[in-house]
Amino acid sequence: MEPTHWREPRGPMRVLVVEDDPALGRLMQLVLGQHLAEIRLARSGAEAIAELSAGQFDAIASDISLPDMSGLDVIAEARKRAPAAGIVAITGFVDVDTAVRSMKAGADDFLGKPFDAEILWHVLNKAADNRARQIAAEQAAVYRQLAYTDALTGCPNRRFIDEFLADAVFRARQEGGQLSVAYLDIDNFKLLNDFVGHEEGDRVLQRVVRTLERHVEPPAQFARFGGDEFVVVLPGWTEERARRLMERVRRAIGQIEVVNGARVALPTRISVGVASLREGQSPRDLVAEAEDAMYLDKAVSPAMVTAAMERAIAQEDALLKAGNIKALRNLVKAIDRRDSYTRFHSDHATQLAIRLGTELGLDDGAMQALAIGGPIHDLGKIVVPDEILRKPGPLTLEERRAMEEHPVMGAAITAAVTDLDSVVNLVRHHHERFDGEGYPGRLKGTEVPLATRLFTLADAYSAMTTDRPYRKGLTLEMAVEEILRGRGTQFDPELAEAFVAMIERTAREGAEQAA
């Protein structure tokens, strides 16, 4: 009776027997023929290979001693041509060496002579069944790997990290251990794709993954969580330790440069948020907290986390308005890259303006204008063509008109997401002059809001001292001289003197600390 454990994978079982002994070959044909739909007999290695070329077999039994070639070579060839077949090696000398060589050639089992032909039937069944199980297991492993792997980058995907995090949270609760999560996002990735193409964007993702692989070591794991987002799970890590790791990752990823069509090198920047597991927190809540921290990192400059900013946007409705600025901040970072400015120009100017505003005791509305409007003051440059933004020499009249439209465009975009007039006014009028010769409104003196007059100083100083591709930034002394020269014309004279005093005092304090 046919064994109940045999499962025919593809209809009736087909078997190839390779045996040069005519009597034994006929005996095996007779016995196996009682159970099989088809059995083929080859009396040499050449005949066996011809049979393998002509058809597919579910099981193969081959003597390892053949007249024209080694049966081990036949088995190796059979394994290549029929990877799903169960293969049994037949030998007259059963020892460990023979068994090892048979298995290395590709056999699933071996049988020593003499043997009962019925035994061969059962061994062939077992070999074919085991091979089917092995292939099923290998396919399942491949499918599982595919299910947990990001196709583009080859790193784990969101499904993997979701399950890994759930297990890590369970173990942390069971063992009372630490657990931290980091959420990473590539800044302005959509704009990067637009500027350099999606193929280059894909290469950036792959290089980010390689960087993470160098820094994130087991038992920590990371995965691509979304299009340009990654999540790192750090079992046993405190939040402070995780932050230090992410700063190293940030610096390493910052070394990845992308060159656009104009041959301008753009650094790859990421925003990062870190959170540690708290009592009663679910895995989803933990990731959400890290994501919120990432958005704060993306949207808030160092200047905006000062006490002045906290005071200025303490009201709930202001916080909601500030949240709308996040998208604008991301656009500004892209503008900074297109304009080849030092990437911290906007933040630098804002920080200087808030420092002076704090010293002068500006009210909350003015501080809010500086803290929110400062980082997005050049938003309107999104409409200015690259060739004008990056032009090293003087602009033509037409080019200058195009450039002078950017405050108006920036104010229009800002007004669409916030009704904070002080912020909109700063964006619109940051190029006005104290003598009325600025643009776009040709406002004069105190017609320009106080916060805007103050920011104009900080913006000009930052621009003057920032290195650009076609010129070196001015020294502090030279920039201060320019500010003083502009008193009463470009700048509010009283604010100019207060700004210069602050800059010189800060420089002295820095020199004293260095000494």
UniProtKB/TrEMBL annotation:
Q: Which residues carry this modification: 4-aspartylphosphate?
A: D63
Q: Which residues form the HD-GYP domain?
A: 320-515
Tell me yes or no: is Disulfide bond among this UniProt entry's keywords.
no
Keywords assigned: Phosphoprotein
InterPro entries in the record: CheY-like_superfamily (IPR011006), Cyclic_di-GMP/3'3'-cGAMP_PDE (IPR052020), GGDEF_dom (IPR000160), HD/PDEase_dom (IPR003607), HD_GYP_dom (IPR037522), Nucleotide_cyclase (IPR029787), Rev_trsase/Diguanyl_cyclase (IPR043128), Sig_transdc_resp-reg_receiver (IPR001789)
Q: Which residues form the Response regulatory domain?
A: 14-128
Q: Which SMART domains match?
A: GGDEF, HDc, REC
Q: Which Gene3D superfamilies match?
A: 3.30.70.270, 3.40.50.2300, Hypothetical protein af1432
GGDEF domain location, by residue?
177-310
Record-linked NCBIfam families: GGDEF (TIGR00254)
Question: What protein name is recorded for this chain?
Answer: Diguanylate cyclase
Which species does this protein come from?
Tepidiforma bonchosmolovskayae
